[in-house]
beta-glucosidase
Amino acid sequence: MEPTRHGTTRRPRRRALLAGALLAASALAAGTVPLSTAQAAEPAAGGRPLPYLDAKLPVQQRVKDLLARMTPDEKIGQMTQAERNAVDADRAQITDLKLGSLLSGGGSTPTPNTPAAWADMVDGYQQRALATRLHIPLLYGVDSVHGHNNLVGATVFPHNIAMGATRDPDLVERAAHITATETRATGPQWVFAPCVCVARDDRWGRTYESYGEDPDLVSRMETAVDGFQGDSRKDLARPDRVLATVKHYAGDGDTAYGSSTSGSYKLDQGVTITDREHFRTVDLAPYVTAVRKHDVGSIMPSYSSVDWTEDGIGNPVKMSANKELLTDVLKQKIGFDGFLISDWDAINQIPGDYPTQVRTAVNAGLDMFMVPYSAEKFEQALLAEVQAGRVPLSRIDDAVRRILRAKFELGLFEHPYTDRSNAATIGSDAHRAVARRAVAESQVLLKNADRALPLKAHQKIYVAGANADDIGNQAGGWTVTWQGQSGNTIPGTTILQGIRQYAPDAAYSRDASAPAAGYDVGVVVVGETPYAEGMGDVGNGHTLNLSDTDRANVDRVCAAVPTCVVLDVAGRPQIITGELPKADAFVMSWLPGSEGGGVADVLFGKRGFTGKLPVSWPRSEAQEPINIGDRHYDPLFPYGFGLTTRR
């Protein structure tokens, strides 16, 4: 705080006391009292608050002051992120290890899984962080990749590939803003989203996390960063904003099939074999946009490796160890001034023993380390490397400076506990209406012979297929749990329920065994069941082909009704070359999330079909990878294809 012209210390002292009162009030609202309330606002000599606790000072000055007060082990604590399950039973670890961050991995939730329980949980952890000597608050991260998807009852949006099909950056921003609002109201202030990978091979199990195969499209959809963070970093302290993370830097969607060395994965965590020009124009381009246009606050490097063709194939470098790309390119050339967070235990994939892995990753430029169940081991190893002079203290200071900046910008020093004022909006009708619109805009009409669509409410409609009435399948992976799950997993509306909002008497046969004769229209819903990451790689128990059951359902229904409509609920194109001629209309519905009514809105003409393919649609699995611009480009449907209908 700057002294007044008359040198009085009264106002600063009152402000310090007010800061303590606000901390206490927020703690009482959360049902906890922080151990550090009195100390956190303790004034310095002369009655002035410590500079780093003075909200009136510039962030840069506050960071500089706090950094100067920190010991090496306190700094290393700020660079350490643990999984909540690792500390929940003994929360004193948060204080003892001086942890800077916690996360909830996929499915890591409180019991009960409610907004209040989430906020109470995060605030309880925060209380322990504020008990440290310098009272530095925790930064809590979560994978809100299509809504606050770990929370039962949250608004669950379509996955990114569907959002790419909308070609609607404003809608993408609105969806991210709703996600930020619902997430922060439950405690977490940081999301590991959006994924700005460029999916170049649909056999990849993370294809649905990408906005598409064209880096220009991906860059256009990065309005998600603005939805999360606001128009500027000054908005981060608001209760409806969170720190965003673009991931996975860089090239994770462009790896060679069969190059992964992670278990039975085929593409995920594999090797991007490329020349620097291709890498720059395809894989790196979205990150330039994220940094220079959207000022993203954090970036997560990929598990994948890069192998430059210019120096010969066979010497790949893990991204977590790649100083050229993390420091020289991203931080220095592109100008990224946020912080880098590693992926889950990613440093363990770097060659060498553990001290070598730690040293290599820190010196390469990683700032915070997601070490879910090995926080103490990491801190001890890094401290030893610093003491031995193998990791410069200047590198530690750079990392911590970046992390502290985010915490100050998020307003955590002034308001460390959860602002629950937006909790009532979680899963609200207004939020679900935006998600329903996103579903409708994402539907891609691939075939519409004889104007089979839109349907009419008076028609006799027969619906078949498991994915017609399975909200878990239509939400996909990263929904309540990491891999997602079939069944009634979240509140919302299935596609069948949406259809019955227009045609209440629509019949349904899950396996198409009920007779379909006598109906005017058959709607067969085919597709995938949930998966995430490399678990969904083709060749790892998955294929792009329709299942035998789905093909049989199409055959049975389309042969029995005058008009047959097929919907594909999946995270990527499936091979439909043989089934397409049997259907009068074919719709790619992607993974719509919790609001299946949006599918019905376009089927019945309340909204017109406007979605466009964000990826090329292969004729066969063997045709992958296939992308716009390829020399011999002959897909079943080209990138950007999509028929339209009038409202």
Observations:
- Residues 1-41 have pLDDT under 50 and may be disordered.
- Residues 149 and 479 are 5 Å apart (CA to CA).
- The two ends are 59 Å apart (CA to CA).
